[in-house]
Amino acid sequence: MATEIRDPERKRGITRTVIWCVLLAATFYFGFIAMAVMRSH
Amino acid sequence: MKIVKYAAAGSIAAAALLPSGAALAAWEINMPVGVTELSRDIHGLHMMIFWICVLIAIAVFGMMIYSIVKFRHSQGAVPATFDHSTKAEIIWTIIPVAILVGMAIPAAATLVKIEDTRNSELTIKVTGYQWKWEYEYLDQKVKFFSTLARDSDAARQTRSGIDPNSIPNYLLEVDKPLVVPVGAKVRVLLTSNDVIHAWWVPSFGMKKDAIPGFVNELWFRADEPGIYRGQCAELCGRDHGFMPVVVHVKPKNEYESWLAEQQGGAAPAAAQAQTVENAAPATAAAAE
Amino acid sequence: MAHAHAHHDHSGAAHDHHDDHGPAKGIGRWLFATNHKDIGTMYMLFSLLMFFIGGTMALVVRAELFKPGLQLVDPMFFNQMTTMHALVMIFGAVMPAFVGLANWMIPLQVGAPDMALPRMNNFSFWILPFAFTMLIGSLFVPGGAPAGGWTMYPPLSQQTGDAFPMLIFAVHLMGASSIMGAINVIVTIMNMRAPGMSLLKMPIFVWTWLITAYLLIAVMPVLAGAVTMLLTDHYFGTTFFEAAGGGDPVMFQHIFWFFGHPEVYIMILPAFGIVSEIIPTFSRKPLFGYDAMVYATASIAFLSFIVWAHHMFTVGMPLAGQMFFMLATMLIAVPTGVKVFNWTATMFKGSLSFEPPMLFAISFLFLFTIGGFSGLMLAIVPADFQYHDTYFVVAHFHYVLVPGAVFSIMAAVYYWLPKWTGHLYNMKLGKTHFWLSTIFVNVLFFPQHFLGLAGMPRRIPDYSTQFADWNMVSSIGAFGFGLSQLLFVYIIVSCIRGGEKASDKVWDSGRPHGLEWTLSSPPPYHSFETAPEVK
């Protein structure tokens, strides 16, 4: 399709940003559950 | 048009300065001053912040209204081109910070007072249930439930046909109120039997959550005898709106005789039987 | 970066031959949409539908509260209505509307052909109708819909009936949709801006969405964690929030509000961006203090992470905690004030005209500021002991959300609808909708300040007789406001169907700012096939 991204540099940039965002989200999700587990008796 | 609209809103806001004891009971617009030193402090803080906000509003809305009136394209206004001013940004950052510091100091002082629960004369354990309060005078062997008064309860049933205006203190009356002596520092230990509730008496200026498995603390010292009414202030299920708090503040000798009456005879035993009897409906309702 | 027009084959298997000649035909265009404008449109229409569903629930609430006594509903159903009203409005109306605006406008404003991840974009949208069908369907299961408040505090939320898993699953799905949407926004902004568009040259709406997207990615997972723990407490024997098992109900509140407070900024930062686009256009003057506005937005976002416990002042917090959260909360007034002053300075010595977008933006300015004042009052802890869980709080957040967020969405629609459809709408009707909405929103919510101060708690279906008069006024305002929104639907539908042709620039304000006004109305299907040069 005309909007497909073909430039490899841009593809790398996009992949990098996506991975960073997913890691951020995952840190908060698992981090808070881990905190709750550690605070339990 | 806009100016008229905002003038109207402004005057409603300004009307909030009417003293709370005013006879406009039905059209209440302000917080009660209350009967404790804390409630008076809180009312003072509230009014101070309110007036500061009104002043800022007059300044800011004034500028907006002026711009709307003065700089109209339809009247041929030619727009200026300026688009920033570091000086302005600094000024209107620093001045608000200064105002906030001015507000924070008295607020912090009142907060310290509120948290000081030492030297109380009387401790009462308050337990929230779905949907009533239980009051226990620790070391006094007095314990009882406080439930919504029967006439209010009948009237509030969906489509009961009973006019709430015919019930005195509709939804704010109980069968057995809390009774405390005037002028005494009363310490309340607050907990819950099931879900989170909150105990609140506006005239005392105090509200705190009642949390199952935990004990919260608050204190009050009522300076005037009277009957003070509040409500549960944390959503606790179906009848959250129907578990009021009623406190009778009595002169010391009347309080003493009331207490003696509670202690003599069947009062504690009846409270025990009530506990068992009332636990069942609460859990049945919870399982619903 | 230039793409040759794709008359030759593309890599990849199934592809759409029609895209060179316009959109696909039939329902496939929508079900399999990857075009940011189509997906944006779907988000906006979904949001509009949810606005009416949530609004109807609010009208049930206000109808019952019209007079003291219980005339219409069982208290349990009333609690379901208040709970669902909030969930639908927050997650179904306001957030999807802002995402829809992001989808429509971000590629246009940064000079990109589409969002960076078009297929994920499609999935992000289509999760929502599924999630909300399930959530609203919970009204019909045994026990009815969730009734413990949108805040879902345990132990009360554990008393939810069969709707419990539907609630948790719906929240997870909506969260996933938001997170994926936010990732798409960040990736697009960071990687697909036109050459020459440095970050501090981006339109302010794009800036506010960039910051909002970061907030979303940080805090939606926290909500997901919180409801996961509610789920395991309910079904798998954990006791995260049960004191009897060594857990703590208050910990839920901390986790929830760690999400919850940034969430309310998620719902207002894009509004700030919209208003920052509209006011300069209709003042015919540049936005005052662009850099300061960016920094103020970033400050607000940062501060939003450290104030959460101001939703919990009565929970029994140590004195130091109460002090810290009081001071941090008061501090947010500073960057917010800076923004209000900057908008005012934009209007000052401008050349103002009052088309519907500007009317809504000005109304936002006045009424959001009022919401800000009540917010400042709520920050003062001792006073909050009287305000907490009363109608004063309800008044505050409705002022910032309705004449705040919702009005900004309406302003955005009135601003960009001609660009989207290629038609001008009936301006006179738009102004009528504006006046009706502004007047009724104040009749509806201003008296609620008084009710709260007079002592009326929130989330109650019936009240003592001294609260009757203001409740009646508020309920009248509710019905007036609700009915006025039908006019909005009429205006939108008429505009979609036809109307006077809109030019590229649409607004006769002499100084177009933003790349969207360099494209035709409606824009070409692939927006910017060739990236524009930005000076």
For the termini of chain A, the CA-CA separation is: 56 Å
Chain pair forming the biggest interface: B-C, 107 and 101 residues
Number of strands of chain C: 0
Order of helices and strands of chain C: HHHHHHHHHHHHHHH
Low-pLDDT residue spans of chain A: none
The sequence of SSEs of chain A as H and E is H
Distance between the termini of chain C: 16 Å
**How many extended strands of chain A?**
0
Main beta sheet strand tally, sense and closure of chain A: none
Strand content of chain C: under 5%
Helix-residue proportion of chain A: over 70%
Tell me the number of helical segments of chain C per DSSP (H or I, 4 or more residues long). Answer: 15
State the helical fraction of chain C. 55-70%
Backbone structural class of chain C: mainly alpha
Mean pLDDT of chain C equals 93
Mean model confidence by pLDDT of chain A: 87
Number of helices of chain A: 1
Q: Give the C-alpha Rg of chain A.
A: 17 Å
Oligomerization status of the protein chains: heterotrimer
List the helices and strands and how they pair.
The complex is a heterotrimer of chains A (41), B (288) and C (535).
Chain A: H1 8-38
Chain B: H1 2-15, H2 37-70, H3 86-114, E1 122-129, E2 132-137, E3 142-146, H4 150-155, E4 178-181, E5 186-192, E6 197-201, E7 206-210, E8 216-220, E9 226-230, E10 245-250, H5 252-263, H6 267-287
Parallel strand pairs in B: 1-5, 4-10
Antiparallel strand pairs in B: 1-2, 2-3, 5-8, 6-7, 9-10
Chain C: H1 28-31, H2 36-64, H3 75-110, H4 118-137, H5 164-191, H6 204-235, H7 249-266, H8 269-283, H9 290-303, H10 319-347, H11 356-379, H12 381-387, H13 391-421, H14 427-454, H15 468-497
Question: What can you see in these coordinates?
Answer:
The complex is a heterotrimer of chains A (41), B (288) and C (535). With 41 residues, chain A is mainly α. In chain A, 76% of the residues lie in helices and 0% in strands. Chain A has 1 helix and no strands. Chain A is rod-shaped. Chain B is of the alpha+beta class. In chain B, the strands form 3 sheets. Chain B has a 5-stranded mixed beta sheet with strand order 3-2-1-5-8. Chain B has a 3-stranded mixed beta sheet with strand order 4-10-9, covered by helices on one side. Chain B is elongated. The C terminus of chain B is likely disordered. In chain C, helix 5 runs antiparallel to helix 6. The longest helix of chain C is centred in the first third of the chain and has 36 residues. Chain C starts with 27 loop residues before the first helix and ends in a 38-residue tail after the last helix. The N terminus of chain C is likely disordered. Chains in contact: A-C, B-C. Chains A and C meet through helix 1 of A and helix 5, helix 6 and helix 7 of C.
